[in-house]
């Protein structure tokens, strides 16, 4: 449509609307060598993820890591790949989440909003989706990284990528970035409900809350991730009404030789088994959707470490994914951040 009072040769402009842009970590396009290499190169070249000087890190990355790791990572992705849709489970679940959130948002605000998603690494890229939203008339955008706890290597790098994408826009939309939601009562309640369903209301000997790890140095440099993970676990225990000591907070996905946040999940579950805790449950509160770290690492490497040490019953509690309570949390977060715009 042409703006009122505009000259006849004025370019057409779509009706203004508010965009709701969900961001997740990313996924390779396939599990073949070159798809994995492209994805890992983008991911591991991010200075928020690996902050070593380029002169020190890039020769190692390009010469050794990206020669070997695409094969091993690709083999792991193949184990969990959604072959029917030819995509990773993270992509499948993110699409389901966005479909549900879109329906809820349109029921509340109608055509005044547009809901879409992007990936920090891989496709659909932040740049491509932002371009699409701007062309569709989004003059205001609520940007929601799907990370309950803030970390520089997750929430911040997602925001960085959005800001870089904005630099390419002739007419930049107004943007609101959403704060982490690790301690929201509705999020904690959704987590608790998932635990209660999975365990049929029983209190386990141990519930291991396994969060994605990061170098301990980042904590000492001011990253709040570790503290926010600890608070999520504490609030979950309080909501469940469990005594102290039932929930253990651990960290997984250690990479490289640097000291990372401890205890390491893979070591801790083995220690639990050797100490006589042969029946445990594991949950991953840092992940909004099941992915390679939960479907392959937790249910593969970590489960095997537990069983090899004498563990007998290993229960994995799925991520919140597109559970109705989770979608309601996301809608509530959007509603609070969209205030005054619709």
| Residues in helices, as a percent range | 40-55%
Q: What strand order characterises the main sheet?
A: 2-1-3-4
Structural class, please?
Answer: alpha/beta
Total count of strands: 8
State the CATH topology of the largest domain.
Answer: Rossmann fold
Number of domains as seen in the coordinates: 2
How far do the termini sit from each other? 21 Å
Q: What CATH architecture of the largest domain do you see?
A: 3-Layer(aba) Sandwich
Order of helices and strands: EHHHEHEHEHEHHEHEHEH
Number of helical segments?
11
Report on the biggest sheet.
4 strands, parallel
Strand content: 15-25%
The first-level CATH class name of the largest domain: Alpha Beta
Give Rg in angstroms: 21 Å
Shape descriptor reads: globular
Give average pLDDT, whole number: 95
Low-confidence stretches: none
List the helices and strands and how they pair.
Layout: E1 17-27, H1 33-44, H2 54-80, H3 89-109, E2 113-122, H4 126-135, E3 138-145, H5 152-166, E4 174-177, H6 185-199, E5 206-212, H7 216-220, H8 225-240, E6 247-252, H9 265-274, E7 279-283, H10 292-308, E8 313-317, H11 324-337
Parallel strand pairs: 1-2, 1-3, 3-4, 5-6, 5-7, 7-8
Helix pairs in contact: 1-2, 3-11, 4-5, 6-8, 6-11, 9-10
């Amino acid at each position: 449509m042409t703006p009122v009072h505009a000259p006849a040769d004025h370019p057409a402009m779509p009706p203004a609307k508010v965009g709701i842009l969900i961001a997740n970590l990313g996924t390779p396009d396939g599990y073949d060598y070159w798809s994995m290499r492209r994805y890992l190169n983008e991911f591991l070249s991010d200075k928020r993820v690996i902050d070593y000087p380029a002169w020190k890190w890039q020769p190692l990355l390009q010469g050794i890591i990206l020669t070997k790791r695409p094969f091993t990572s690709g083999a792991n992705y193949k184990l969990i790949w959604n072959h029917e849709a030819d995509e990773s489970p993270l992509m499948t679940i993110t699409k389901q989440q966005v479909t549900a959130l879109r329906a809820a948002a349109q029921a509340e605000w109608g055509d005044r909003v547009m809901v879409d998603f992007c990936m920090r690494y891989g496709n659909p890229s932040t740049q491509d989706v932002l371009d699409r939203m701007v062309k569709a008339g989004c003059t205001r955008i609520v940007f929601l990284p799907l990370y309950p706890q803030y970390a520089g290597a997750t929430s911040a790098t997602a925001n960085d990528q959005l800001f870089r994408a904005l630099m390419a826009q002739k007419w930049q939309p107004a943007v609101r970035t959403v704060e982490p939601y690790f301690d929201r009562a509705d999020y904690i309640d959704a987590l608790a409900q998932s635990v209660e369903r999975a365990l049929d209301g029983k209190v386990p000997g141990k519930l291991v809350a396994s969060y994605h790890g990061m170098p301990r140095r980042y904590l000492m440099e001011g990253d709040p991730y570790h503290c926010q993970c600890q608070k999520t676990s504490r609030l979950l225990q309080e909501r469940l009404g469990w005594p102290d000591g039932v929930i253990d907070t651990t960290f997984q996905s250690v990479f490289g030789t640097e000291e990372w946040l401890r205890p390491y999940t893979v070591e801790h579950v083995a220690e639990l088994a050797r100490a006589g805790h042969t029946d445990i449950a594991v949950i991953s509160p840092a992940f909004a959707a099941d992915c390679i770290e939960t479907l392959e690492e937790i249910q593969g490497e970590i489960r095997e470490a537990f069983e090899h040490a004498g563990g007998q019953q290993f229960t994995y509690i799925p991520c919140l994914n597109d559970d109705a309570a989770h979608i309601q949390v996301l809608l509530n977060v959007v509603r609070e951040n969209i205030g005054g715009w619709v």
